[in-house]
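Late entry, pantoate complex.
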Amino acid sequence: MPVVVHEPAAVVEACDRARSAGERVGLVPTMGALHEGHLALIDEARRRGAGYVVVTIFVNPLQFGPTEDFDRYPRTLDADVARCAERGVSLVYAPDVRTMHPAGFQTHVVVEGLTARLEGAHRPGHFRGVTTVVTKLFQVAQPCLAVFGRKDYQQWKTLERMARDLDMRVTLIGHPTVREPDGLALSSRNRYLGPAERARALAIVRGLRAAADAFAAGERDTRVLEALVRTPVTEAFDRVDYVAVTDPETLEPSGERTGNRALVAVAAHIGTTRLIDNCVLGEDTPPTVP
Ligand code: PAF
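Prediction complete; structure with ligand written out below:
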């Protein structure tokens, strides 16, 4: 079983001890409700040479807007620890909100340009919450590597930028999105979906697949690629926040034509559930549509 700690000092002590014993510390930050996607991040940390894997579990209020799902976000610590045990995780850090953000907390880390669009435009303050909490996790664990899922593509790029800009001594790894056999991206929020809603959610998968197939066949017209995703998603979902085709590094909108790599990213609502997904055309293996 992993050691489970709730205080930053315990993380500092455990990671210092691991390093003194010659281990490389790898960090997998999560909000819990662990699924196969998270377990793949843990495996990736180990595959990249982390002998001492730390999983953090913290539903971070700073990254939720006032009307978002902070209160109902699943909290399943015992099951999460059991899954970490199966994957040989060494340490689980599960602080409470008061430990992470004590009264009087007033320091934040902000990445500017990259966070202006897509998720940043629809979730004001979200990335400020993410970058602040991840900085705190890096501070205590001092990992040599940290693994994030590319389903949250903009988050991954933002954290990479932050680590580079602030000379953080950590290598960030973006792990490809893990999908269900029918292509739906794994997400802790999928458990909010009833069976009929889940079936409707597959419109994202069909859209991404259609865009990837068109791209592979030579299509570079940004409007055409965007429409291939937007049309099925608009039909199946109740509300679309965005469907965007952008440069995969700057996240700036592609012009009339894309280059030979382009990010297509989507965020949309079914009932009270908001889903995001993406595909880097020209790079990612597109989702399989059964
Ligand atoms: O991707 C997540 O689960 C969260 O945004 C993270 C990185 C753990 C920060 O709270």
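The longest strand covers residues 262-270. Will revisit in the morning.
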